[in-house]
Specification:
This protein has 119 residues and is of the alpha+beta class. It contains three helices and six strands; from the N terminus they run βββααββαβ. It has one domain: Alpha-Beta Plaits (2-Layer Sandwich), CATH 3.30.70. 17% of the residues lie in helices and 34% in strands. It has a four-stranded antiparallel beta sheet with strand order 2-3-5-4. Strands 1-6 form a two-stranded antiparallel ribbon.
Length: 119
Amino acid sequence: MHELPVPLWRVAHGRTGDKGNRSNISLIAWHPSFYPILEAQVGAERVREHFHARQPGRVERFALPQLHAFNFVLDDVLDGGVNDSLNLDSHGKALSFHLLAMTVRMPDHLAHLLVGPAD
């Protein structure tokens, strides 16, 4: 079996919310077959490393298997939150796009299920 490196946006979509200095990022598989790939390859530690520039205090992953999704909670990533930050995106709405730039390895037999054009 061969594996293809693909950007995460071809495997899942996301949505971001915030509360104070905490960001919630949902990651929802485009197809149920992708959920085990997300489960195996997109863990809390890998997300922490991906967001290293924002220096998250803590990253937690919550599984929602019936939705084929995960919710990541990242503490201390919004420069103090909406009222304290001079950041242009103090709500952190773009953080889901940053997560979706991560790369995962996809078994080639699932490539026909990928969303979007091939690179």
